[in-house]
Each structure stands twice: as structure tokens, then as C-alpha cells.
Write a structure and sequence with these properties.
The complex is a heterodimer. Helices cover 77% and strands 1% of the residues of chain A. Chain A is mainly alpha-helical. In chain A, a hairpin with a 4-residue loop joins strand 1 and strand 2. In chain A, helix 5 runs parallel beside helix 11, helix 7 packs antiparallel against helix 9 and helix 9 runs antiparallel to helix 11. Chain A is globular, with a radius of gyration of 21 Å. Chain A starts with a helix and ends in a 5-residue tail after the last helix. The mean pLDDT of chain A is 91. Chain B has 3 domains: 83 residues, NADH-ubiquinone/plastoquinone oxidoreductase chain 6, subunit NuoJ (Four Helix Bundle (Hemerythrin (Met), subunit A)); 41 residues; 40 residues. In chain B, helix 1 packs antiparallel against helix 2. Chain B is globular, with a radius of gyration of 20 Å. The mean pLDDT of chain B is 83. The chains are: A mainly alpha, B mainly alpha. At the A-B interface, helix 2, helix 5, helix 6, helix 7 and helix 9 of A face helix 4 and helix 7 of B.
Chain lengths: 490, 167
């Protein structure tokens, strides 16, 4: 009994590490004088690093935890690493931002850690209601974080919008779970698969449930037609929170979607293929076309997040093991470049996030050469230029989709063609920022400020990671493949 | 047509009608009262399903404590009647019909599912004792139970962050 409990604890080690450090931050908060509150940020960062080490422990004792509620497999481990890395970078980027905005509080870091614990549950959940709890932990924390700049009206508005629509989405997800349970009598992700193979075909009620789950999770990963709230929320949120929001929850929710769609409903892939196909096309076009007309860089990056969710759906539609590996690799590359880009926006926004317009970036190349170079790197990676992680992610996504043409026919080839067209459209708005940085007349009202060390380290790590995934992808790719193989597909 | 089935029908109708009134009522206090009706009807349904403990919790926590909070908030905010906004055109001509179709479609398939076929034929399930419930909760579902406690902690934190006085 005792050893069984110990093994269980090992398998959810990242979650309890994150939760305990989160609680520790809260307990210490009242005892720390306002001037020293930044140390709570460092404590939270240490907690995230401890959780990364704990992932290793989980990796060493793989298997089902807590009566099949949590599945600790390589897939879950991969997602954990990406999610916790994103959270750690966001924490690093937050410490000086909160100081600058005068909202340095312990609760902020505790919420990030709790949200990350929730995303960890999403990554490993093998039971839908447990997954729902993880989703709620991650969502409710982020609703609060989005509204953390309480004196800023856009931040309040964003928080309110996110809360209302997010709760609505969660209700859809829960309703979908209820339908699946009503049709099949189980909520265990790996058991659904066997029940669907029974004679008599797939119950329509289960399909309806799957549709509702798609709507609910689609809201969370910002795919069309559920993306409407996204740009407002991303723009209104404190920028380090936007960095977190655009990366970690998306990764965790996509991981859950992979589990539900591939493991539970893998044999119904003909049914959900078209939903994913239509959504992918809409997401890419809406994201890219809307990004074209933005002059606010933060908002432009928000639309770019939507477009990238579309590219991920292209790999998702493949419904093969290679497709899973491609999604995972894409997510890893996407997290690094997106967090990096938003952290640079964090620094350049300056006090009160006043400088977000593309004109404010003019002439940055000569003033802040290092910063401008790293921002260009992230933008090139988002655009998908070779030698960056973004290129390889896109390449793998498109390749896995093309490989699946025997199963899905020409539809998936068209999907790749549309994705390629969209990549070209995307080039315009990414390059516009780069051109403004290097070739436009510098704006006169810019007062340079040095990059805080913590933020600098975070940007550096993201930049190195982006290059690493672009130049030496073999190890991570192998990891992604093993992760994909560890899912019990039918 | 057993007595239990009649009770089920009556409480189902009460719950749904309460929910409709809850949405349509203009006065917040009417909505709150309608919500109590929904909660109590649901509690009776839980009893019919053989879960007296959950039914009791439903009455005490939801119909009791949470509703008192609702009423207090309505009283303290002195909330007047709602202002009606015009339905958006899409919601009126696409959303409402789609919603109605969804409800009937779901009802149709629910009726044909194993659970649906069992309606009316099921004998009363053995009542889940509080003891059995706690064994389930603290053994098999220990992990979600702990996750829920963190979730509640997050909600408390949220209230703290959003309601605290700015320095």
C-alpha cells in the first residue's frame, strides 16, 4: 500500500512540486516586505525548475497513476517539459515587469504555478473529469492573471471577456463529457476506444459529445470559429501573461485534444477529420488576414497565434503517429518563439505598456542591436524561415499531412496547399516589423532602457532554443517520436 | 409507470421550467428564486438515483448556503431589473433554431442510448451510503479530490487579488 502510494506520487511529481511551491509562495507573501517581493518571483522560478527535475522522476516511473486517472507516459513527459519551460520563462519575464508596473505581488507567481500544475494534469489525464479539473485549474488562474493590472481598463475588459467566454467553453466541454458518458458509460480515455469498436457502430450521442468537446477545447486553443475573444484578451493582458497564455495552456490543451481524438476516437477519424479541416482553413485565413492590418505589435502577435493554431491543426488532421510527433515538435518550437517574441514586447512596451505600435519599433536595429536581432530571429521563426525551429515545425506538420493522403485523399493535400499560401501571407506582417526596425527613421521619443538580467536570460534561452530546434533537431524530434509512440492508439 | 418514474417526470419538468424562468426573468431576485426551484428539483432527482448524500449536500450547500449568498449580493448591490438588449440578428434567426434542433437531436439520441432504454425500467438503485461514497472519494478519486482543493484555493486567491484595495 505504502509503496503503491509512493509510485503514484512519483508519477504526478511535477504537479505536487508546483502546487507545494505555489502554496509556499502564498504563505511567505505576507512576511515579505514590499521591496523584497521580487524574491517570491525567484522562488516561483526555482519551483518551476524543481518541477522540471520532477518530470525526470516521473519519466523514470512511467505507468498509470491513481487507478488509471493519470497516465504518465513519454507523451505526458514531453508536454510537461514544454509547459513548465514556458511557465519558467514567463516567470523570469514577469519579475521586472511587475516591478515596473508597480504590481509586484506574491499571488501572481502562485497563480502561474497553480495554472502550470493544472496544465500538467491536462497533459497526463486519462479520464475526462480529471482533465476537466486540470482545465479549470489552468483557466481560472489565467482569468485572474489577465486582469492583474487592475488599474488598466483594457486589462479589466480582457479579464471579464476571457472569464465569461472561457466559462462558456468549459460548459461545452463538460456537456460533451456528459454525452460521451451517457452513450458509452465510461469517461476513461483509453477505455472509450474499445467500446467504440463494438458492433452496431459508433453511437451518435458519443459523436455529439465529441463535437461539444471539440467546441470547448477549440475555445481554449483559439481556433476558428471560436477565436473571436482571443486578440482582445491577448492585447489587454499584462504582456508576460500574454506570453504564458499564448504558449503553455495551448500546448496542454492540444495535448488533451490529441489524447481524446487520437486515443479515444481514433477510429472515428473520418468523422472528425472534416471538422478539423474546416477549422484549420478558417483559423489560418482569419489569423493571417487579420494580422495583416494590425499596427499594434502585441495584437499582431495575437493574430499570429491564431494562425499558428491553424498550422498545428494541419498536422492534427493527419491522424497518424507521425502527425502526433509533428504536433508535439511544432508546439515545442512554437512555445519558444512565441514566448521570446512576447517577452521582447514586454521590455519594449515600457511603463504602462504605452509603446506597442509598430512605429515605436522604428530604428530599433541601430539602437538596440541585440534586442532587434533576437526579435528578428523570433519573427523569422514564426514566419518559418530555414535554420529556425519554426521552419522545421512547419515542414514536419506539412509532411505528416501529405503522408496521410492515402487515408484522407486530396482533401489533405489541399489543406497543405492552403497552409503554404497562408505562410506566404504571414511573411508580409512579420517582415513589416523587421523592416521597420532596420530601415525606418528612428522615432524621436524613445528613451532606451537596459534589459533587466532576468528578462535577458529568458529571451536568451528562448533564442538559443529556437536556433537549437532549427539546427540540431534530431534529439527533440526523436523525443517527440517516442512520445507519439507511447500513446495507446488502436 | 412506476411512482419513481412519475416523480422523475415531475421533477424534470420543474427543473427545466425553473431554468427557463431563471433566464427569462427580469428581476434578479426572481431569477434567484427560480434557481432554488432548479436546485431542489435536482436534489429530488438525486434521491431517485439512489444518492441521498448528494441530495442532502445539494440542498444544504446549493439551495441553502450559495443561494443565501446570491440573495445577499442582490440585496447589497441593490440590483434593479435588467435592461433588455435587442437580440442579435444572428442569434435570433440562426442561434435559436440551431439550439432547438440540438436539444431535440440530443434528446432523440439519448433516448436510444443504453441509458435512455433503461428509463422507466430501472429499479431503484441501492442507495450509496456515505461510507461507500467516502471510500470512493478518498481511495479511487483521491487525486481529483486533491486537485479540487487546489482549484478552490485558486478561486480564493482570485477573490483576494480582484477585491483587494489598491495601495
Amino acid at each position: 500500500m505504502a509503496t503503491a502510494q509512493l509510485v503514484n506520487l512519483h508519477r504526478v511529481a511535477p504537479e505536487w512540486h508546483l502546487s507545494i511551491v505555489g502554496i509556499l509562495v502564498m504563505i511567505l507573501d505576507p512576511f515579505v516586505s514590499p521591496r523584497r517581493k521580487r524574491w517570491l518571483g525567484w522562488l516561483a522560478f526555482a519551483g518551476a525548475l524543481a518541477a522540471l527535475l520532477a518530470v525526470h522522476r516521473a519519466y523514470d516511473s512511467q505507468g498509470m497513476a491513481y487507478d488509471n486517472l493519470i497516465s504518465t507516459d513519454v507523451f505526458s513527459v514531453f508536454v510537461h517539459v514544454v509547459v513548465i519551460l514556458a511557465a519558467a520563462l514567463s516567470i523570469l519575464g514577469s519579475i521586472d515587469y511587475l516591478e515596473r508596473e508597480g504590481i509586484q505581488r506574491g499571488e501572481y507567481y502562485a497563480l502561474i504555478l497553480f495554472a502550470t500544475a493544472g496544465m500538467g494534469i491536462l497533459a497526463g489525464a486519462n479520464e475526462l473529469v480529471t482533465a476537466f479539473l486540470g482545465l479549470e485549474m489552468s483557466s481560472i488562474s489565467t482569468y485572474i492573471l489577465v486582469g492583474f493590472r487592475r488599474r488598466s481598463e483594457p486589462s479589466n475588459e480582457a479579464s471579464m471577456k476571457y472569464f465569461l467566454l472561457g466559462s462558456f467553453a468549459t460548459a461545452f466541454f463538460l456537456y460533451g463529457i456528459a454525452m460521451v458518458y451517457g452513450a458509452l458509460g465510461t469517461t476513461y480515455i483509453d477505455k472509450i476506444q474499445a467500446l467504440l469498436e463494438r458492433p452496431g457502430g459508433i453511437p451518435a450521442l458519443a459523436m455529439l459529445g465529441l463535437g461539444l468537446i471539440f467546441v470547448g477545447l477549440g475555445f481554449k486553443v483559439l481556433i476558428a470559429p471560436f477565436q473571436v475573444y482571443g486578440p482582445d484578451v491577448y492585447e489587454g493582458a499584462p504582456t508576460p501573461v500574454t506570453a504564458l497564455l499564448s504558449s503553455a495552456p495551448k500546448v496542454a490543451t492540444f495535448a488533451l485534444m490529441l489524447r481524446i481524438f487520437y486515443v479515444s476516437f481514433g477510429m472515428a477519424s473520418d468523422f472528425w477529420f472534416w471538422a478539423v479541416w474546416i477549422s484549420a482553413v478558417l483559423t489560418m485565413f482569419i489569423g493571417n488576414l487579420a494580422a495583416l492590418v494590425q499596427s499594434n505589435v502585441k495584437r499582431m502577435l495575437a493574430y499570429s497565434s491564431i494562425a499558428h493554431a491553424g498550422y498545428i491543426l494541419v498536422a492534427f488532421a493527419a491522424s497518424t503517429t507521425l502527425g502526433i510527433a509533428a504536433v508535439l515538435f511544432y508546439l515545442a518550437a512554437y512555445v519558444l518563439m512565441k514566448v521570446g517574441a512576447f517577452l521582447i514586447v514586454t521590455h519594449l512596451g515600457q511603463r504602462g505598456e504605452a509603446r506597442l505600435d509598430i512605429r515605436d519599433y522604428a530604428g530599433l536595429g541601430s539602437r538596440e542591436p541585440v534586442l532587434a536581432a533576437s526579435f528578428s530571429l523570433f519573427l523569422f521563426s514564426l514566419l518559418g524561415l530555414p535554420a529556425t525551429g519554426g521552419f522545421l515545425g512547419k515542414f514536419l506538420a506539412f509532411q505528416s499531412a501529405l503522408d496521410a493522403h492515402s487515408a484522407h485523399g486530396t482533401a489533405i493535400i489541399w489543406l497543405v496547399v492552403i497552409a503554404a499560401i497562408n505562410s506566404v501571407i504571414g511573411a508580409y506582417y512579420y517582415l513589416r516589423v523587421i523592416i521597420s526596425m532596420y530601415f525606418a527613421q528612428p522615432s524621436t521619443d524613445y528613451t532606451p532602457s537596459s534589459v533587466a538580467p532576468a528578462l535577458g536570460v529568458a529571451i536568451f534561452v528562448a533564442a538559443i532554443g529556437t536556433l537549437y530546434l532549427g539546427l540540431l533537431p534530431a534529439q527533440v524530434l526523436e523525443f517527440a517520436r517516442t512520445a507519439a509512440d507511447s500513446l495507446p492508439l488502436h | 409507470m412506476s411512482l419513481a418514474f412519475l416523480m422523475f417526470l415531475a421533477c424534470g419538468v420543474l427543473a427545466i421550467s425553473g431554468a427557463i424562468v431563471l433566464i427569462l426573468a427580469r428581476e434578479p431576485i426572481h431569477s434567484a428564486l427560480a434557481l432554488i426551484q432548479v436546485m431542489i428539483a435536482l436534489a429530488v432527482l438525486y434521491v431517485l438515483l439512489g444518492a441521498p448524500f448528494i441530495a442532502a449536500v445539494q440542498v444544504i450547500v446549493y439551495a441553502g448556503a450559495i443561494m443565501v449568498l446570491f440573495v445577499f449580493v442582490i440585496m447589497l448591490l441593490n440590483a434593479g431589473s435588467e435592461e433588455r438588449t435587442d437580440f442579435s440578428q444572428i442569434a435570433k434567426y440562426v442561434g435559436v433554431p440551431l439550439g432547438v434542433i440540438l436539444i431535440f437531436w440530443a434528446a432523440h439520441w439519448l433516448w436510444r442510448s443504453p441509458a435512455g432504454r433503461a428509463i422507466g425500467t430501472a429499479t431503484a438503485m441501492p442507495a450509496a451510503s456515505t461510507r461507500a461514497l467516502s471510500v470512493e472519494l478518498f481511495r479511487q478519486y483521491l487525486f481529483p479530490f486533491e486537485a479540487t482543493s487546489i482549484l478552490i484555493l485558486i478561486a480564493i486567491l482570485g477573490a483576494l487579488v480582484l477585491a483587494r484595495k489598491e495601495p
